[in-house]
């Protein structure tokens, strides 16, 4: 006799759209994507086993098939999950053993024929930690009105059993769960939760966590009760300042202790992952293009002499190896993929309350206190490769957030280059169209572009560098710079370390051209600027602050000035896309 799905999940209700058969998308897919694809995705499938498709699961790997539809006892995809937690072959390993309910769901699904749409390819996702990520949201924003003795709408959110007995939550189906759908209503909607007068609407980072938690089965530890808590009464501005002040103190302390020499060096993001920085001496150059340059556009002038101070610049574009340590926190601990997400805004420092004895709550936690990206809803390399390849498709906001995180983590002040710094570094003392000369013919020796890139980006540092020793300044991926875009910026920005701060989410400047551009776009003076079309196909509503799904040509590299800004306020200016978009 088969148990009802509700019994398998250990919950009181199932989604109204669930049939008698296990729903693969809502019940099995989250298990595979969160627990299995970290080791058995397409890029480096352990043991040759890829679980991104049904065909791949049936085909199996070096040890044979993983899935035998109709026969769970012959399907390692199920049987390995039932092994003792200390068994060498238990899956998933490393203390992430599936719950009895999850094992039962897999078993029943396989018994029923392992239905899995042929056109559905799975993507690795991050597990939402209820205690660290969802519980604080509920306790601050929901429990006050939905608790024992004050259960508005007969909904309690302080007690697990009472909550799951309601009609507001359907594990595995966020879109059928009012506890999620009411949080993403328009700000003026009568049913918005929490209502506008009580802090709604929630930030997308919070609603995304609630959605993912439900879709992953809405795990809530037994015996855990929620308590009403108040939001930090100090306000978001004070929180932002506290974080920046802590990081600023960290940078100043490191700078004083090191007294760094101005020379090339290698930085470390983790024990295994590092990055090379090149010392770029200060100087003067002619910024922009002459009227006679083929392909010149009006926004590249007027050409004028500009002075820049010395700085260090990344030898290559930031790679996925580096960026994913920021994107997926547990990678820092040597795991293949994150086992928990740190998805909090800078202004909500839930995880690091002030110690009972007082003192600075951020010391030693600076990197963890920085906003990290939400879980992507597409595979962000788009199949072009990750190991040694440039990270792509991040928003200007995300690139800046990475520099904040890297600064807090390393104790060195990193940021995006100004547009002037970028062109100065790209030209590397030359005054020609490209840094190899004005003739486009040798482009293939120095750059990846449309004619030689085979329709995708390539590994960083595989082409000849410019005279400063920088690789891929032209081609491979277009690179974010700090500046907001103005067509007439050169006429108004000045000539001594000029910079044009951003003034809106769009447009910001990107430079260098990419694998998807013709050689003319690789000119040192060519300017590009962002626009909403760069995330036109973003499936999320509201659209993500972190991902540009239609900008697969776009990445970034970092710079490190020789001096730390004198005040936290000056530091903060370099770490905001524009003032209203922290």
Describe how the helices and strands are arranged.
Blueprint (H helix, E strand, L loop, with lengths): L4 H5 L14 H13 L17 H6 L16 H4 L20 H12 L18 H12 L4 E2 L2 E2 L8 H5 L13 H4 L22 H12 L20 H23 L6 E4 L5 E7 L2 E5 L16 E5 L2 E4 L5 H8 L68 H15 L8 H9 L15 H4 L31 E7 L4 H4 L15 E4 L15 E3 L24 E3 L2 E3 L6 H6 L9
Parallel strand pairs: 8-11
Antiparallel strand pairs: 1-2, 3-4, 4-7, 5-6, 7-12, 8-9, 9-10
Explain this structure.
This protein is α+β, with helices and mostly antiparallel strands and about 575 residues long. It folds into three domains: about 5-110, no CATH class; about 130-215, no CATH class; about 240-275 and about 310-575, paralog of FGE (formylglycine-generating enzyme). It is built from 16 helices and twelve strands. The chain has helices at about 5-10, 25-35, 55-60, 75-80, 100-110, 130-140, 160-165, 180, 205-215, 235-260, 320-325, 395-410, 420-425, 445, 490, 570-575; strands at about 145, 150, 265-270, 275-280, 285, 305-310, 310-315, 480-485, 510, 525-530, 555, 560. The protein has a four-stranded antiparallel beta sheet with strand order 3-4-7-12, with no helix packed on it. A four-stranded mixed beta sheet has the order 10-9-8-11. Strands 1-2 form a two-stranded antiparallel ribbon. Strand 3 and strand 4 (about 275-280) form a beta hairpin. Helix 2 crosses helix 5 (about 100-110) and helix 6 crosses helix 9 (about 205-215). The radius of gyration is 26 Å and the shape is globular. The termini are far apart.
């Amino acid at each position: 006799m088969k148990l009802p799905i509700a019994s398998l999940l250990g919950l009181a209700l199932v989604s109204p759209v669930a049939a008698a058969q296990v729903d693969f998308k809502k019940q099995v897919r989250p298990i595979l994507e969160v627990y299995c694809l970290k080791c058995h995705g397409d890029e480096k499938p352990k043991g040759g086993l890829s679980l991104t498709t049904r065909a791949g699961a049936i085909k199996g790997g070096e040890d044979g098939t993983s899935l035998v539809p109709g026969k769970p006892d012959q399907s390692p995809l199920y049987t390995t999950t039932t092994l003792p937690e200390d068994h060498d072959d238990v899956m998933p390993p490393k203390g992430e053993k599936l719950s009895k309910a999850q094992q039962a769901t897999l078993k029943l699904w396989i018994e029923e024929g392992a239905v899995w749409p042929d056109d559905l390819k799975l993507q690795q996702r991050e597990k939402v930690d209820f205690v660290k990520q969802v519980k604080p949201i509920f306790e601050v924003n929901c429990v006050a009105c939905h608790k024992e003795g004050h259960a508005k709408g007969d909904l309690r959110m302080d007690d697990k059993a009472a909550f799951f007995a309601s009609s507001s939550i359907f594990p595995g189906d966020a879109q059928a769960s009012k506890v999620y759908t009411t949080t993403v209503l328009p700000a003026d909607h009568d049913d918005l939760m929490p209502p506008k007068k009580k802090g709604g609407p929630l930030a997308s980072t919070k609603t995304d966590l609630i959605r993912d938690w439900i879709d992953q089965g809405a795990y809530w530890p037994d015996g855990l009760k929620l308590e009403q808590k108040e939001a930090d009464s100090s306000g978001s501005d004070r929180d932002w300042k506290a974080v920046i002040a802590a990081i600023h103190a960290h940078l100043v302390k490191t700078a004083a202790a090191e007294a760094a020499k101005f020379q090339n060096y290698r930085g470390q993001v983790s024990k295994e992952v590092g990055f090379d920085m090149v010392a770029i001496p200060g100087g003067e150059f002619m910024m922009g293009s002459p009227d006679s340059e083929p392909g010149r556009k009006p926004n590249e002038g007027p050409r004028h002499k500009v002075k820049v101070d010395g700085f260090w610049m990344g030898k290559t574009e930031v790679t996925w190896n580096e960026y994913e340590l920021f994107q997926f926190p547990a990678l820092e601990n040597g795991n293949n993929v994150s086992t928990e997400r740190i998805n909090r805004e800078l202004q909500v420092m839930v995880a690091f309350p002030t110690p009972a004895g007082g003192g600075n709550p951020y010391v030693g936690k600076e990197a963890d206190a920085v906003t990290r990206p939400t879980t992507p809803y597409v595979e962000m390399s788009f199949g072009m490769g990750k190991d040694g390849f440039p990270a792509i498709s991040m928003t200007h906001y995300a690139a800046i957030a990475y520099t904040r995180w890297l600064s807090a983590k390393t104790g060195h002040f990193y940021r995006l280059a100004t547009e002037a710094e970028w062109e100065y570094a790209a030209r590397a003392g030359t005054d020609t169209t490209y840094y190899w000369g004005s003739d486009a013919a040798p482009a293939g020796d120095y750059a990846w572009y449309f004619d030689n890139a085979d329709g995708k980006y390539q590994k960083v540092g595989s082409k000849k560098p410019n005279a400063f020793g920088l690789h891929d300044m032209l081609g491979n991926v277009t690179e974010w710079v700090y500046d907001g875009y103005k067509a007439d910026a050169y006429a108004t920005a000045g000539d001594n370390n000029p910079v044009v701060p951003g003034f809106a989410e769009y447009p910001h400047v990107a430079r260098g051209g990419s694998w998807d551009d013709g050689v003319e776009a690789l000119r040192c003076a060519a300017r590009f600027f962002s626009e909403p079309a760069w995330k036109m196909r973003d499936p999320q509503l509201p659209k993500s602050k972190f991902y540009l799904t239609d900008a697969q040509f776009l990445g970034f590299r970092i710079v490190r000035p020789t001096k730390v800004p004198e005040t936290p306020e000056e530091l903060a200016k370099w770490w905001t896309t524009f003032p209203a978009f922290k």
